[in-house]
Amino acid sequence: MTDQEISIDTFSNTLLEQGKRFLEKAEEASDKTAIEAFNHAALLLSFSALEANLNSLADEMLLRDGLSPHDIGLLTESDVNLDDSRFVVSKRLKMFRLEDRLLFLFCRFSPDEQPKTRPWWSILLHGIDLRNKLVHPKKHVTIQTKVVRQFIEAELQCLDDLYAVLFKRSFPQAKRGLLSTLDF
Fold first, then answer.
1. Most CB within 10 Å of its CB: which of 18, 29, 96, 119?
2. pLDDT under 70 in the chain at which residues?
């Protein structure tokens, strides 16, 4: 199977399962160096899974009617320009913070939703902050297994809530919680 044949949904599922498995390994390990490495891997992979899920959901929302050029620009991470008195989506990349895209999906497709008031919101932001400190280091960052566990739980709760808003059903992987399907 080539990379082109693997769907973003399958890939995001794989990333999340890998993140959960590395969390399990961190909880099983006794060596401090191994625990640190497993925590780093779990956080990075689960964050990647969150972003992959967000991209997949954005692609799905692009199929809906009534989207403005600004909606499309945010969903596709494309710049929007004024061209001949009309807003048009350009091919130029315009990146948005993950939490802004997440809030947009909640609020654009269910205006009554207030994800910032959910218990998982601050935990998710803390995990994103730790991921950023790990990816763009300025000093050593210590990431505790408990914090990684909380981040992945918050991610699952966030995606479950988002699926309820967008599709009126649960996020399929939420049912398994933190139990990974992997056994490496």
1. 18
2. 1-4
Name every residue whose Cβ is closer than 8 Å to that of residue 160 and which is 6 or more positions away in sequence. Answer: 170, 171, 174
Please give the Cα distance from 144 to 78 (Å, whole number).
36
Which of 37-41's residues contact partners 24+ apart within 8 Å by CB, and which partners? 38/145, 39/143, 39/144, 39/145, 39/148, 40/134, 40/143
Question: What are the boundaries of each domain within the chain?
Answer: 3-170
Q: How far is CA 82 from CA 86, 104, 143, in A?
A: 5, 22, 44
76: number of Cβ within 10 Å: 17
Q: What pLDDT is attached to residue 111?
A: 82
Distance, CA of 154 to CA of 102 (rounded, Å)? 13
Rounded to whole angstroms, what are the CA distances from 96 to 73, 93, 163, 173?
10, 10, 21, 26
CA distance readout (Å), 92 to 58, 86, 95, 119, 158: 17, 17, 10, 36, 29
pLDDT at 10: 95
Please choose, from the candidates 180, 141, 183, 169, the residue with its C-alpha nearest in 3D space to the C-alpha of residue 45: 180
160, burial (CB in 10 Å: exposed 0-12, middle 13-18, buried 19+): middle
pLDDT digits (tens, 9 = 90+) for 2-11: 666 789 999 9
Bridge-based pairing state of the strands 78-83 and 86-93: antiparallel
